[in-house]
Amino acid sequence: MRFVKGHGTENDFVIIPDPEGRLELSPETVAAICDRRTGIGGDGVLRVVPTARCPEVADQAGEAEWFMDYRNADGSLAEMCGNGVRVFARYLVDAGLAAPGEFGVATRAGVRRVRIAAEGDVTVDMGRPRVLGESRTAVDGREYQGLGVSMGNPHLACLIEDPVAGLDLSRPPRFDAAVFPDGVNVELFNLTGDHRVTMRVYERGSGETRSCGTGAVATAVAAARAVGEETGTWAVRVPGGVVTVTLDATTSWLTGPAVLVASGEIPAVL
Questions:
Q1: Does the pLDDT value for residue 101 go beyond 90?
Q2: What pLDDT was estimated at residue 267?
Q3: Exposure winner among 9, 24, 129, 209, fewest CB in 10 A?
Q4: What fold characterizes domain 2-126+257-265?
Q5: Any binding-site annotation on 185?
């Protein structure tokens, strides 16, 4: 099985090309691939498969030739991944499967339009955030109030006074399962300046990651509301770098780097 390794602000993925749509990736196989000691290592797997060959998203084939079949590091399915879409688009262009410019990528949360040049940052139309209301989480022995935001996948973005750098995110945050029956990605963030925040995230199915694209947008939504705004451009600093989120009246945009770093073959024993 061929693979390519890539990352967006150090949120890293193993890309598996499957142009014939024949691969069956079990949760156990995905978890073995993502293992950082005995596998390739990654926060998730991006299977590259023609949209028309996947019944679950075949209705998107008219808008997007390729489907980003995203799996979390534990093998569970995920609806969307903002950093993953950027890395996926960079792979399509570098592999000659798409031309630089603008094109659609099929996801379980719907088609996401990307803008990409031959090199440099990638911008994704992330869709209109859907505010779910307030809820609470418990992290490192402390409770925090947050704003629930759906980006196709669920988030709880919490503006906190404690410095995010000092939090222990080695264990899953507690949350209200009645509000988030399918689990939730939890973001903790500090306001650090004019339209600037610092964020850390615990992703369901992956644990703490160095960055989360959908989480960055959810954080920007929560930060904007905290200062009495609904639109604007925010710089979101994560442990892996900085991404830019633009909120307008109809949608949201995520801009940041996408880098491919290695390629090879995965042995059958994995």
A1: yes
A2: 86
A3: 24
A4: Diaminopimelate Epimerase; Chain A, domain 1 (3.10.310)
A5: yes
Tokens of residue 167, six digits:
């939090």
Which amino acid type is present at position 122?
V
Beta bridge partners of 175: 137
Whether 158 sits among the annotated catalytic residues: the reply is: no
Q: Token pair 């307008």 is at which residue?
A: 248
Output the average pLDDT for the chain.
Answer: 96
Q: Using a pLDDT cut of 90, give the percent of the chain over it.
A: 98
Q: Does domain 130-250 have CATH number 3.10.310.10?
A: yes
Is 153 one of the annotated binding-site residues? Answer: yes
From the list 97, 99, 70, the residue with the least C-alpha distance to 82 is 70
pLDDT tens for 190-219 read: 999 999 999 999 999 999 999 999 999 999
* The pLDDT of residue 163 is above 80: yes
User: Which residue type, as a one-letter code, is found at position 119?
Assistant: E
Q: Is residue 81 flagged as an active site residue?
A: yes
Sequence ranges of the domains in the chain:
2-126+257-265, 130-250
Amino acid at 153: N
* Residue 45, beta-bridge partner list: 14, 71
Which of 34, 54, 158, 212 is the catalytic position?
Answer: 212
Q: Which of 34, 54, 81, 158 is catalytic?
A: 81
Q: What are the CB-based long-range contacts (under 8 Å, 24+) for 249-252?
A: 250/128, 251/125, 251/126, 251/127, 251/128, 252/125, 252/126, 252/127, 252/128, 252/129, 252/151, 252/217, 252/220, 252/221
**Bridge pairing between strands 122-125 and 2-8:** unpaired
204 annotated ligand-binding residue? yes
